[in-house]
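ARCHIVE CARD
Drawer: 12
Card no.: 0347
Subject: one protein chain, sequence and derived structure
Cross-reference: see card 0346
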Amino acid sequence: MTTERVEIAILGASGYTGAELLRLLASHPRVHIGALTAERQAGRTPGEVFPHLASLSLPRLVRIEEIDPARFDGIFCCLPHGLTQAVIRELPEGPRIVDLSADFRLRDPALYEAVYGRPHVATALQEIAVYGLTELYREAVRGTRLVANPGCYTTAAELPLAPLLKAGLVDPDRIVIDAKSGVSGAGRDAKLGSLYAEVAEGLHAYGVAMHRHAPEIDQCLADFAGRPVTVSFTPHLAPMNRGILATIYVDLAPGAEAPDLHAELRRAYADEPFVEVLPFRGIPATRHVRGTNLCRIGVHPDRRPGRAILVSVLDNLVKGASGQAVQNMNVMLGLPETEGLAAVPLFP
């Protein structure tokens, strides 16, 4: 484990995930932020773009071509889907890279093209990229130079389901995921669907039966089920800034009961600092993980025999994005996994 400070760059630092990385890394004792890039905001200070960060001593935002990537130990890439792969393809092999876009999450280039509507231009890198749900793929993360940071909905779904599928406690063919997200999941760019009047005082489903996170969930769960999995997944936009709440309905395997699911999750995550399994029948809430890298999971029996309900919550900008990225980078660079991530939830 290294005891030296590491040099970090953030590409695309002017969005919500970039701002969260800066907030988290500001308290990281072994990180020095050496470069921040942002094409449209180049020349400005981070405090001008994000006033809540004005008290931090940070470098000005510059364009990507103005930095020397080879001098960094780690690079966080917060660029838009589709743009990232071409940028990462040109980076040197030295730095460890965590990509927060979706460009390297799907292993099959044909599936990526079908889901995202464009061909993949860095398939050689896609072959070496490791899916970065740290608790499930930690050893692979430790040994790679490129991590594909998972999506927020996917993290909330995969953490409760993967151990149960691996243990054979639930039916892989009958999984229903009903998930709600805060508006920050849509990014910081001005969009009609993110306007206050479009979001406040209402709740709506979107991407029904076609959301791009569904194939990502299928891919991960298949790793643990040992066979193909196709989930039913419906996301909803909720009138809140942060948070993911996933309510997951499962059919129990023959002989299994809801307390068995709870016991298996408790066993699987007993030593994990960022996954908390509540007491049986406990129900987590997004307000209880706000601002943290925590995922909290509850298990409850259904009123119908042979079924159970899982409820999973996390902060979509932290465990669902930037916090998980820091967690992955810590593992890649041999730093303590929890460093920079010790915040307790903000409440109320």
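Annotation on reverse: The radius of gyration is 20 Å. Residues 152-166 form the longest helix (15 residues).
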